[in-house]
Specification:
Belongs to the peptidase M28 family. M28B subfamily. Homodimer; disulfide-linked. One of its GO terms (cellular component) is external side of plasma membrane. This protein is about 40% helix and about 15% strand. By secondary structure, the chain is of the alpha/beta class. It folds into three domains: about 270 residues, Zn peptidases (Aminopeptidase, 3-Layer(aba) Sandwich), CATH 3.40.630; about 180 residues, Glucose Oxidase, domain 1, CATH 3.50.30; about 140 residues, Transcription Elongation Factor S-II, Chain A, CATH 1.20.930. β14, α11 and β15 form a beta-alpha-beta unit. α22 packs antiparallel against α24. It is globular, with a radius of gyration of 35 Å. The N terminus is likely disordered.
């Protein structure tokens, strides 16, 4: 009322008046609302409302000042009092309305510039976790999986072939039937195929058997050299040969298949100037026919090696470039029969005892001598193929711009039943199951799920890597996990997984919730974990695993797992990869194992898209970093004590970076504990910090064209912490200044990569630890 009396006084005294209008607006993203204050003249508003003004051109009717002057003072006073009463009534209504708004929305007692309380995003209703688990278990059926296995089984579906395209169309049709949005992308990639005549292997001048298999991306050459047996072709195998004073230069190296990829075997041999590599399946490892040919590739990398670091879309202007992972020497697979014909006749020294456990007939496993000449001729043909990746998406109900990907290879050199058919069938069945849970059971995933069918996987994850290269900048910000369905079943007595440390905790809890396919009374955890589940189950993620480029090139937390055999290697990459053989390797439990594998992927997926917070444990990387730092510190101090490394190399900054990550991870865990996890905006902020971790371990100091796998902890190359350990291990004598400078440079860059990850995890720039 004081304000009203003041206003009346001002009206009669003719003073100018203004009023304040408040606009309370809620930010669409859930941020604090703001108060908009607009000032305007009451006199002008009233004049306009009543059609009165100084300029007669502003009015619709004529202006008669003389008539107004002729009115009696009582009439004029009545007009004024009437207007005043209307004004006061309007003012009081507005004032009381504003007070009511303040009581419900404004925390501060300040009547003008108060802060609007943040409005929590309304949580999307979803089923609780026990309901989701039960639904997944009931809806994911062996009968549906079996139908998919029959439908997607194909005798011929090599990358880019009509069979491959037919499968792609079937998969897309399934996705559409489930009501999913679908799309494809196409790439023009270069791959090797056998030439018009087979590659040849000659021993002591005579052709050895029929060479039907081949290794894509081998150097196309004809070379000759003395034979040398090198066990599995591992780095330690070649070091053992050097310790025995065996000259590797110019030799044609024979190695067994297994333990590491074909590409790594060839790269190890080429680094020591071998002239060629022959790879054979030893009967101690493989239970296959003597004439069964092996197929594979020897590109030390993934993707199209002729478009390294960038995508092979049809509109790309391809530069004259090729991957540094292409071998400079020829490589070829040979059969058991061919290997027996060569190995049984080798002379020279007896190989180390551990190397003589093979089962080739009439073979002493000698190392070979200079008279055992082998000629290798590789005549593969490089061609360009158009391939298609197929996608379907289930969009999230809240954070639809955050998504995970479930992927499976679609192509194969032969039947590829375990290599691609099983994974493809599970991919489609999981898509059906989850969409059915959404349509009929009320499940509403908070985040999106992409289902991807990749082509050209047999050539080193070509389709998947090209997609990553094409969308890397956006994937880093939005994709929070990748799960591979490739080669998930090749046996039944062992369960192995390879994953980002961020996913370890989720893998452990999932194993406890899935029943063992070989003993229904136990969980996977009880069946396979042993005394230490990590030692029993987890293994390093290798180059041959399809999840590797997602993890080490794109910095996306990834998971690859498999039910396998502890005795014999499954014949992947052969014509014996059939449904009948897989049944024998699984003791006729293929469907039970497939259902269990589907439940593992399904539960991991549901947990990642259902919970408010991403189930990624950032603290797990602290032990990984600490382990590497401990190894480096021990070797640095040892080399410095022996005078082989100068005292100018200091551990101070690496230790400081390790501490920064430890503190950032602990601070985030504390933030989570003290946060309102029903506040969706707060959860999104925390999730963004979690999502930055994996990508921050990609070294920003190396080019993807030169070092594709930039992850300093899980990748490969001179930028990794493992390379620093190897560098220190290799120091036998003093280093020259150039070597010291190179080591110090790699040391510093690795240190700053860890510090950068700690900074990203810390959150806002003012929360960062800048002590380093």
């Amino acid at each position: 009322m004081d304000q009203a009396r003041t206003t009346i006084s001002k009206i009669f005294n003719g003073e100018p008046r203004s009023y304040t209008r408040f606009n309370l607006t809620q930010n669409m993203e859930g941020d604090n609302s703001h108060v908009e204050m607009k000032l305007s003249s009451d006199m002008d508003d009233e004049a306009e409302a009543n059609g009165v003004g100084e300029n007669t051109n502003q009015h619709n009717g004529p202006y008669y000042p003389s008539k107004l002057n002729q009115r009696s003072p009582k009439i004029i006073c009545g007009y004024v009092i009437g207007i005043l009463i209307l004004f006061i009534i309007g003012y009081l209504i507005g004032y009381l309305s504003n007070r009511s708004t303040e009581k419900t929305e404004i925390k501060s007692d300040c009547p003008v510039f108060n802060e609007i309380a943040p409005v929590k995003a309304e949580a999307v209703y979803s089923l609780d976790w026990s309901d989701l688990r039960a639904l997944l278990k009931n809806k994911l059926t062996t009968s549906n999986i079996n139908s998919n296995l029959k439908e997607f089984s194909s005798a011929s579906h090599q990358a880019g072939s009509t069979g491959d395209e037919a499968l792609a169309n079937k998969i897309m049709g399934k996705f559409k039937t489930y009501g999913m949005s679908t799309w494809t992308d196409e790439h023009y990639v270069k791959i090797h195929e056998p030439g018009s005549s087979n590659n040849r292997v000659l021993f002591r001048g005579n052709v050895v058997g029929t060479t039907e298999g081949y290794l894509a991306y081998s150097a196309l050459k004809k070379v000759q050299g003395a034979a040398l047996y090198a066990h599995y072709g591992r780095a330690e195998d070649f070091r053992r040969l050097q310790e025995l004073n065996v000259d590797i230069n110019g030799k044609v190296v024979l190695v067994r298949a297994g333990l590491l990829s074909f590409a790594e075997k060839v790269a190890n041999a080429a680094s020591l100037n071998a002239s060629a590599v022959l790879i054979y399946p030893d009967p101690v490892n493989y239970n296959i026919k003597e004439d069964t040919a092996l197929f594979g590739h020897v590109h030390l990398g993934t993707g199209d090696p002729y478009t390294p670091g960038f995508p092979s879309f049809n509109h790309t202007q391809f530069p004259p470039a090729q991957s540094s992972g292409l071998p400079s020497i020829p490589a070829q697979t040979i059969t058991i029969r061919q290997a027996t014909e060569i190995m049984s006749k080798l002379g020279g020294r007896t190989s180390p005892d551990a190397w003589s456990d093979g089962m080739l007939r009439d073979t002493m496993y000698k190392l070979g001598d200079d008279g055992d000449n082998i000629t290798v001729e590789v005549k593969n043909v490089l061609i360009q193929k158009k391939i298609h990746n197929v996608f379907g998406v289930i969009e999230g109900y809240m954070d639809k711009d955050r998504y995970m990907v479930i992927g499976a290879q679609r192509d194969a050199w032969g039947p590829g039943y375990a290599r691609s058919t099983v994974g493809t069938s599970l991919l489609v069945e999981l898509a059906r199951t989850i969409t059915d849970m959404i349509k009929n059971d009320g499940f509403k995933p908070k985040r999106s799920i992409i289902f991807a069918s990749w082509s050209a996987g047999e050539f080193g994850g070509v389709g998947a890597t090209e997609w990553l290269e094409g969308y890397l900048t956006s994937l880093n910000l939005k994709m929070f996990s990748y799960v591979s369905l490739d080669e998930v079943i090749s046996g039944s007595d062992t369960f192995k997984a390879a994953a980002s440390p961020l996913l370890y905790e989720l893998i452990e809890s999932t194993m406890k919730q899935v029943s063992s396919p070989v003993d229904a009374t136990k969980s996977l955890y009880e069946q396979f974990a042993g005394s230490s589940w990590e030692k029993s189950v987890m293994e390093p993620m290798g180059l041959s695993q399809s999840a590797y480029p997602f993890q080490t090139f794109s910095g996306i937390p990834s998971l690859s797992f498999r039910f396998t055999s502890s005795t014999k290697a499954y014949p992947f990459g052969t014509m014996e990869d059939t449904d009948q053989n897989l049944e024998r390797y699984t003791s006729y439990n293929t469907l039970k194992l497939a259902k269990a594998a589907g439940e593992v992927v399904g539960l991991v997926t549901l947990r990642l898209v259902h919970d408010h917070l991403l189930k990624l444990n950032v603290a797990k990387y602290t032990s990984v970093i600490r382990n590497y730092v401990s190894q480096i510190r021990s070797k640095v101090e040892s080399r410095q004590m022996s005078g082989r490394l100068p005292s100018t190399v200091t551990m101070q900054w690496l230790l400081s970076a390790q501490g920064s990550y430890d503190r950032a991870a602990s601070a985030l865990i504390s933030t989570i504990r003290n946060s309102d996890l029903d506040d969706m905006e707060q959860c999104r902020i925390i999730n963004n910090r979690i999502m930055r971790v994996e990508g921050s371990f990609l070294s920003p100091y190396v080019s993807p064209r030169e070092s594709l796998f930039r992850h300093i902890l899980l990748g490969s190359g001179s930028h990794t912490l493992a390379a620093l350990v190897d560098h220190l291990e290799a120091i036998k004598g003093g280093l020259d200044s150039a070597d010291i400078d190179l080591f110090k440079n790699q040391f510093a860059l690795a240190t700053w990569t860890i510090q950068g990850c700690a900074n990203a995890l810390a959150g806002e720039v003012w929360d960062m630890d800048n002590e380093i």
